[in-house]
Design goal:
- This protein is mainly α and 173 residues long.
- It has 4 helices and no strands.
- The chain is 91% helix and 0% strand.
- The model has no long low-confidence stretch (mean pLDDT 86).
Amino acid sequence: MQARGPRLILFAVLLMAGLAACLLTWDGRARLASLRAAELDDAARMELLRFTVAGIGAAQQAYVAPGQPDGPWLERASSSIQTLSDAVALARQTTRSTATTTALQDLSDLVATLVAVDGRARQHLQLSLDLLAADLIFSEGRDALDALDSCLRRLRVAQQTAIDDERAALVGR
């Protein structure tokens, strides 16, 4: 009869340890699922941004092409640049590491450069300096778009590395 008390205490301790292990496992799986959802969201956002950058380039090239009506392409370039700016601002809120923060700052700087180039090209078009506008779009504009695409790839790698580090920490726990 005396051994029954310690056995019940041992059973209760083991039961609590088992429940705690179950809760930790459940929480870990939930966090991993959330991390996977964030990873997929980040990947989709980065692909959309890269697609937007390509669309900006196409719209800019179209509005300096001879014989094309400028209006729709100017509007499309403006809305795409605004979409890109909004997406960068949103990405700042979901940053996961300092490397991501640095890449986002570079991305913001490149968007500002693209806006400046686009603005100068539009001024040239208003002054009927179509060749200067085209030269600007096909030189500085193309360089800015290539740098944006490269920066987006770096940002994607930085985000993936941060997610992989979080995942490794969760699995290690």
